[in-house]
Amino acid sequence: MSGQLLEVRNLRTYLQADGREVRAVDDVNFSIPKGDTFCLVGESGSGKSVSALSVIRLLPQDVASHPSGEILFNGCDLLKLDGPGIRAIRGSQIAMIFQEPMTSLNPVLTIGEQITEALQLHRPEMSDAEAEQRTIMALEQVQMPQASRRFRDYPHQLSGGQRQRVMIAMALACEPQLLIADEPTTALDVTVQAEILRLMRKLQDDTGMSMLFITHDFGVVAQMAQWVGVMQQGKMVEVGPCSEVLRKPRHSYTQQLLAALPENLVKPVSVRPHSQNATDQTPLLQIRDLKVWFPIKKGLLRRTVDYVRAVDEVSLDIPQGQIVALVGESGCGKTTLGRAVLQLEPPTSGSIQIQGQELTGLSARELRPLRRKMQIAFQDPQSSLNPRLLIETTLTEPMKVHGIGANHEQRIELAGLLLESVQLNRDFLWRYPHEFSGGQRQRIGLARALTLNPEFIVCDEITSALDVSVQAEILQLLLSIRQQRNLTLLFITHNIGVVEYLSDRTVVMYKGKIVEQGETAQVCGQPQHPYTQKLLEAVPRLSL
Amino acid sequence: MTEHAVSRESFAARIWRKTLDGAGVKVGLSWVALLVFAAVFAPFLANSMPLLMSKDGVISAPVLQYLSVEDRWVLATFFIALAVYRLPVGSAKRILLFLLGSALAAVLANLFVKPPVLVIYDDFRSPAYTEADWRIMPPIPYAPTDYLRDLGSKGLEAPLATEGHTHLMGTEENGADVLSRMIHACRISLSIGLIASGIALLIGVVVGGLMGYFSGIVDMLGMRLVEIFEDIPTLFLLLTFVAFFGRSLYMMMVIIGVTGWSGYARYVRTEFLKLRKQDYVQAAVAGGLPLSSILFRHMLPNGVAPLLVAVSFGVAGAILSEATLSFLGLGVVDAPSWGQMLDQAVKSSTFNWWMAVFPGGAIFMTVFAYNLIGEAFRDAIDPKLSSKAGVNR
After folding, report:
1. Which residue segment(s) compose the domain that A108 sits in?
2. Which residues contact A487 (CB under 8 A, 6 or more apart)?
3. Which member of A344, A392, A397 has the closest CB to residue B289?
4. Which one of A280, A308, B158, B247 is at 20 to 30 Å from A99 when CA atoms are compared?
């Protein structure tokens, strides 16, 4: 076993919360050979992050305890080390990078200062000039353009991908033997993710370090890992070489997870409405030359110096009864477009027509009857429901305003039916949002969008914050609701797998403009525009 | 099925019921209730004249004869409030009825009641009153402005110092009973705190809410308005008004209220700016809900926590503002207030603990009580907190 850099044996981590003990990590065994990448996969709450934090001993002492287990790093048990002992290893031999590049850098220090500080902490003998040299080298190593100039930049001047590069540079500055990466690319766009993953593989080849890579994305696993461990509720249910686990999963949970991936879901082909005659019927929604520009104001008089062109001359038809996927990276204007369609964001110019009725330029009162026809469901299950209101109030209030149901009893009955139609228990009406899981909240969010019996729903990344198995359920639910109610959906997402599974048509946005649109099979199969090609290439695929 | 029955009550009723669930709030509310009771029935609780007496076969009630316009109006308002609370109508109608009734009572009291202008308390100690067949005196047989100098006492007296006439909380330098003054002072302290903060809160929430929700040009203009009002020195404004229009408690309330809303507006604005981008607010807009529902049902309850803390201190601040004015000798002339009593204690040549402890304690208790109520209200609005406390639903 001399080749193993890290060996975790019978690790248990218990967390104290509200007087209860949570077995966050329960008897976990795995080992990482030198120079290899070990991927921990699992859904949220499965204990993968806690396992990694246990290894680097970053869990708060008064909350976490380790009733049993050994963490052997180069043959030395990390759990037995005292404070100074672990600090000597942390950063210099084991380094860690985190998920959120926006918050993991200190905004008031330049990136150079931050990397130098980490460096000099572990190499006190290093002079300032030497440390700066080493830092610039580290920045060059992570392929930061113009590294010596970037040295004096502040974090806010960098993009998300660049910040993650800085984080990696900081972690690698001391040349650690083990890098722990906790969902390092989850917050990034696919194209940036592809670059970062490529960079990490290259750095691993160059330095020969090992990686403990935490992710929930099997596509990323397929690209990065030599070894995979699948975690479920604190237990390691399956460990093995990557190709074996992904191709021939033995444990039922792994099989379940893989089956829930959108690319593996069985498409219900029969339910699709025929779209041959889509050309001769008028589309449900017509968008013409829509612009949503946000002014940039500067100076004492707040004069408008320029505009952020969030949506720029977009023309789009959404045919009745179809699911149109709107794809693009963060900041490309897809969410703004969705909101502008619902008049939640006032358009700068252009026209939006639903069934021939113009939406722009209407007053709130004139708009109210049209609101019934179009609704929205949101991404974040935490903020999509009013935490202060019962589900019953959330669902019946819009009905009351629009005169649906004769009295309160009838509206409650309707709301109960709606909950059942999104496969929830009717009694959930009498609960508050915080009592539900993320998936349940998204269902309730869908039910709310359905209260007014709309014809058109904008789904803004509704599955992005969910685990794959929950995502699969929501997608299937969406398809069945669509069929029952003949709904038209504008499905905003960045997940190509979901697009291929769900949508009839695909629209690709880039920097506020639509660069490509057409039948999903065609756009994803033979992309024409260079950006679409780049986007599709960057998607981490499961196929090895 | 209790679950269903309870859940069908209105939003306001549910919040109110949950507010009452805690233990701390009961302490706070009972103190406030005690103050209300003392404020409303002050002339009957502490007065030099008999409540009821019979002389030569004629039964009379001197207290009723001498009730001032204000006393009558306060009593009428209190009973109107009780009656309206019993009426089976909606809350908006209730408030309207209450306000109308109270205004009507004020008008009637001002038009038709002509109490004796001059009250000579010594008369009530003359044989005309003392040598009755029988008489019922109030529990504290001293009026707040009944200075007992002529009785031969030296004025200042510690609690229970002299036998014969008992002063439970002693007397102040002029010989007036401290407890009696405390009871009559409830009225000023209670009303100035509630009404001044009420006015400030109303203006602050509406202005701040509109600023936060609409942002843009409305926000810019609103903030300038807030800044203008923050620049007005309340004390000097009060001094100016006192100089021009004389001393009036109501004027003080209005001025403290009208100049004090800017802080609340800022709190509400900040919360609303944050909340308006929340998905559930956007969903409410997309659902075509009316603006009042979006502002007051979907946004305000989620942003009210910092406001409630500010208000409970605002009430205390208003009570103290009045004390400051009294300290400067610009308070209401004759009616006692806690601030004025504290001021007396400070200004007296010797330190007399009873003159400071009782009004000071009362101010402390009142501020504390409002804090307790504010906190309970905040917790009641947050379903997460209230379910943790074991009062789920």
Report:
1. 102-175
2. A321, A454, A455, A456, A457, A481
3. A397
4. A308
